[in-house]
C-alpha cells in the first residue's frame, strides 16, 4: 500500500474532528464531501449555513449534509470563545471588543475551537496566505512543551527509490521559520524526526545540511549547524543524526563514505534539515519540479495541536491528503 493510502486508512480508524475554516471555498467543499463519504474524518465547516448548503447543492455534493456547520457570525459558544481569547491574550492588551471582532474571522474561530477542545485539528489556506493561517494558531494554540518554534516538513516521494527510505526523504523547515538559531534548528530536527516516525512511518536518519562536510569549510553558518547537531543530540539522545553534511554527502553512499568516513548517516540520510527557510523552501520546490517528486505537505510540526496550511494552488486531493495527515497528527498527540 502506498504512503498516502496508509495515512488515509489510519485516519479512518481515528475518526478525528477536523475544522475547515474556508467552508464556502469550492475545492474545500468538494474535499469535505469526499472525506465524509470515505469516513476519513469528521468535518466541521465554518461559514453561513444557508450559503454552504446552497454551494453544496450547486456542486451536487450530497455528503455535506453530514458535516457540522458553525456560523462565525452567530453560534452558541461565541461568548465563551471571546472570554477565552481575552484570558489568553490579556498580557498583550487584547480587549473584549477586539476579541468580539476577531472571533468572526473563521481562521480565529477554528483555532479557538481547537483550544477549547471542540475540534482536533484544522486545515486552511486554500484562499488565505500562510501568515494569516499561522498567526492565530501561534497566538492561541501555541507550541508543544519543550518546543519554541513551529516549522514545516515536506514528505518528498521521489521517482528514484535508491535515495532515502525507498525513495522517500523528509525535508524541513520548508515553510515557516525564516532564520532559525542553532537551538531552534535543533528543535526543528527533533520535531522532524517525530513527524517522520508518525506520518512517514519509518525510523529517521537525520542529516543537518550545510555547505560544509565535517568542517571542510570554516564559517559562522557552519558553526550554527554543528552546534544545532550537538543540541539535537542532547534533546533527543538516541536520535540518529549527523552534521555538518553537504547534500551529496548526506544522500549518496559513495560520496558520504569519502567525505564523512565513519558517519552513520552520511550517504543514507532519509531526513534532511536545511539551515534556513531560504534553503529548505528552494530545495523542495526544485526537487518537486526538476526531479518530478511528489511533495506532501507542508506538515506543520511543533504546534500543541495540528493545524496545517494549504497552498492557494492546492487541488481537491491535496486537501483530502492534508486532512488525513492532520487527523494522524491529532491521533498521535
Ligand atoms: N513558531 C512559533 N511561534 C511563532 C513562530 C514560529 N515559527 N513565528 C512567530 N511566532 C509567534 C510569535 O512568538 C508571536 O507570538 P505572540 O504574539 O504570542 O508574542 C506570534 O507568533 C506573532 O509573531 P510575529 O513575529 O508577529 O509573526 P509574524 O506574524 O510577523 O510572522 C510568520 C510569523 C507569518 C509565520 C512569518 O514567520 C512568516 O511569514 N514566515 C514565512 C511563511 C512563508 O511565507 N513560507 C513560505 C511559503 S509556504 C510554502 O511555500 C509551502
List the main descriptive attributes of the protein structure presented here.
46% helix, Rossmann fold, 2 domains, five-stranded parallel sheet, alpha/beta, 333 residues, binds acetyl coenzyme *A, globular, six-stranded mixed sheet, 11 strands
Give a written overview of the molecule.
The chain is an alpha/beta fold and 333 residues long. The chain folds into two domains: 3-142 and 304-332, 3-Layer(aba) Sandwich (Rossmann fold), CATH 3.40.50.10950; 151-294, Isocitrate/Isopropylmalate dehydrogenase-like (Rossmann fold), CATH 3.40.50. The chain has 13 helices and eleven strands. The protein has helices at residues 3-14, 26-38, 49-58, 78-89, 96-102, 106-115, 130-141, 182-200, 220-235, 247-251, 253-259, 277-290, 316-332; strands spanning 17-20, 42-46, 68-70, 121-124, 151-157, 168-172, 205-209, 240-245, 271-273, 294-301, 307-309. The strands form two sheets. It has a six-stranded mixed beta sheet with strand order 8-7-9-6-5-10, with helices on both faces. It has a five-stranded parallel beta sheet with strand order 3-2-1-4-11, sandwiched between helices. Strand 2, helix 3 (49-58) and strand 3 (68-70) form a beta-alpha-beta unit. Helix 8 (182-200) packs across helix 9 (220-235). It is globular and about 65 Å long. 50% of the residues are buried. The model has no long low-confidence stretch (mean pLDDT 96). It binds acetyl coenzyme *A (ACO).
Amino acid at each position: 500500500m502506498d504512503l498516502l493510502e496508509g495515512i488515509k486508512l489510519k485516519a479512518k480508524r481515528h475518526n478525528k474532528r477536523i475544522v475547515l475554516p474556508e467552508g464556502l471555498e469550492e475545492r474545500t467543499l468538494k474535499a469535505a464531501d469526499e472525506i465524509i463519504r470515505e469516513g476519513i474524518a469528521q468535518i466541521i465547516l465554518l461559514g453561513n449555513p444557508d450559503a454552504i448548503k446552497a454551494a453544496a447543492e450547486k456542486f451536487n455534493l450530497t455528503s455535506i449534509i453530514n458535516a457540522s456547520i458553525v456560523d462565525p457570525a452567530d453560534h452558541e459558544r461565541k461568548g465563551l470563545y471571546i472570554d477565552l481569547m481575552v484570558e489568553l491574550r490579556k498580557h498583550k492588551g487584547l480587549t473584549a471588543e477586539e476579541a468580539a471582532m476577531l472571533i468572526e474571522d473563521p481562521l480565529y474561530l477554528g483555532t479557538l475551537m481547537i483550544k477549547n477542545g471542540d475540534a482536533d485539528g484544522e486545515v486552511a489556506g486554500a484562499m488565505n496566505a500562510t501568515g494569516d493561517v499561522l498567526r492565530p494558531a501561534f497566538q492561541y494554540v501555541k507550541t508543544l512543551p519543550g518546543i519554541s518554534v513551529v516549522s514545516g516538513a515536506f514528505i518528498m516521494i521521489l521517482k528514484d527509490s535508491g535515495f532515502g527510505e525507498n525513495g522517500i526523504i523528509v525535508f524541513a523547515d520548508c515553510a515557516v521559520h525564516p532564520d532559525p538559531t542553532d537551538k531552534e534548528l535543533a528543535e526543528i530536527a527533533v520535531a522532524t524526526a517525530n513527524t517522520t516516525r508518525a506520518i512517514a512511518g519509518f525510523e529517521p536518519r537525520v542529516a543537518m545540511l550545510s555547505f560544509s562536510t565535517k568542517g571542510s569549510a570554516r564559517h559562522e553558518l557552519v558553526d550554527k549547524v554543528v552546534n544545532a547537531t550537538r543540541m539535537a543530540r542532547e534533546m533527543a539522545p538516541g536520535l540518529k543524526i549527523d552534521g555538518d553534511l553537504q547534500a551529496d554527502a548526506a544522500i549518496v553512499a559513495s560520496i558520504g563514505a569519502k567525505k564523512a568516513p565513519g558517519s552513520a548517516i552520511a550517504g543514507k540520510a532519509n531526513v534532511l534539515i536545511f539551515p534556513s527557510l531560504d534553503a529548505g523552501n528552494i530545495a523542495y520546490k526544485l526537487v518537486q519540479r526538476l526531479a518530478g517528486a511528489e511533495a506532501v505537505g507542508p506538515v506543520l510540526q511543533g504546534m500543541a495541536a495540528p493545524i496545517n496550511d494549504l497552498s492557494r494552488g492546492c487541488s481537491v486531493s491535496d486537501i483530502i491528503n492534508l486532512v488525513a495527515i492532520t487527523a494522524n497528527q491529532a491521533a498521535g498527540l
